[in-house]
Design a protein that fits this description.
It is built from 13 helices and 19 strands. The strands form 4 sheets. Strands 4-3-5-6-7-8-9-13-12-11-10 form an 11-stranded mixed sheet, with helices on both faces. The chain has a 4-stranded mixed sheet with strand order 18-17-16-19, with no helix packed on it. A two-stranded antiparallel ribbon has the order 1-2. The protein has a domain at about 360-450: GMP Synthetase, Chain A, domain 3, CATH 3.30.300. It is globular, with a radius of gyration of 22 Å. Helices cover about 35% and strands about 25% of the residues. The chain is an alpha/beta fold. The termini are far apart. Strand 6 (about 240-245), helix 11 and strand 7 form a beta-alpha-beta unit.
Length: about 450
Amino acid sequence: MSVFYETAFRRVLFPAYETGLRRRDTLSWLDRYERDQWLSPAQIAQLQWARLKQLLEHCYREVPYYQKQWRALGITPDDIRTMDDYARLPLLTKADIRANFEDLKATSVRDKLLYKATGGSTGEPMRFGYTRESNSRRHAVMWRGYNWAGAPLGSRSLLLWGAGVGTLPWKQKMKDRLYHAAFSRRIVNSFHMTESNMAEYADAIDEFKPQVLLGYMGPLVRLAEWMLATGRRVHRPRAFIACGEALHDFQRVLIEEAFGCPAFNTYGCREFMLVAAECDRHEGLHINSDHLVVELLKTPDAPEEGSTGEVIVTDLSNHGMPFIRYATTDLATPAEHTCSCGRGLPLLSRVDGRVIDAIRTPDGRILPGMFFPFLFKETKGVNQYQLVQRELDKLELSIVRGPAFDDESLAFIRHEIYKVLGDSVQLNCHFVDHIPLTKSGKTRLTISDLT
């Protein structure tokens, strides 16, 4: 039955919804990206360069921010003849985006943009715009990457995910429920996981019998540890897809032993969705270089040896609010080989900068650090934040306030944190001027000093 539904969904239901009803060209882009991945590395580099040149020329014609910046530097698109020339363009930071939000919009489409907000896994929430075409293309790239893990469109999937904060209207809840049901997937809220209710999550897997298990690394690893410690076995999915944090080798071994299926690492962010993902050869994460330009820029304090660098990304499809050389503050290491699968997409050997600490409580709750991007994405007036736990019953929250921050913002933060953690912890809020960086140049969102 599941194989029949997968086929029907991909060939009939999803085309009717996506192409017919929503008038989006996701499927045509998926077909194109499926073909492009098999080009040679040289052909992909050529394709990437052609798309990059088109984007740069568009920015010079239509985006005030780049017009002003490049003219001040005496640069035109004609001066950018190689990737080395391109790499000398200034970086774009979250602070730049917040300070120049309107000027980053292309003049011809500024009234037609869609918008999202990042949760700020580096502690800095941010809003950004994108076009309908770029939305279709990034979803196509996401589905291509999930297909590498044996999770094509319509696969029966259980997502151990974070539920949004606040209270949704019942109509939105019903709409979301129908939408997920059509995609044959179920969302299980990882923010409610505790030491005492692990069996409920295992039961949910047995009840739903997913072909794909997907979710934040932290909760899934803790569930795997519990399963191995108690001897609990669950319905065996065909693939496990890790999101939100880096999948380390020791975690891969633990997960594959607990769930009995191969684990697949991914790397993405809300600004671009899927940046890189593993295929079934597990020789590294394929960078979606036919869709993005990804550079690895060495940080000032990096050692001379090694090639780990900060991930710098340009989205080649978003001509509405283009991000040219966007500094993600994540760290990654390139692979020096090509994958034996035959795809021409280059590889990352690992992603180093996505570790987010979990928060624990005296009554046994374990809250994944990914809760806080969800929370602060919905809180007005928060420029930066960091949560530190040094004692089991105390949390220290530092906030860099923006102009929109008020008493309602603080009340909302307290209400949502106590809603998921209960009253067994004390939340102390501090207003600060800045959040200190780690030695690697990142701002850690949550820090747990508990053993």
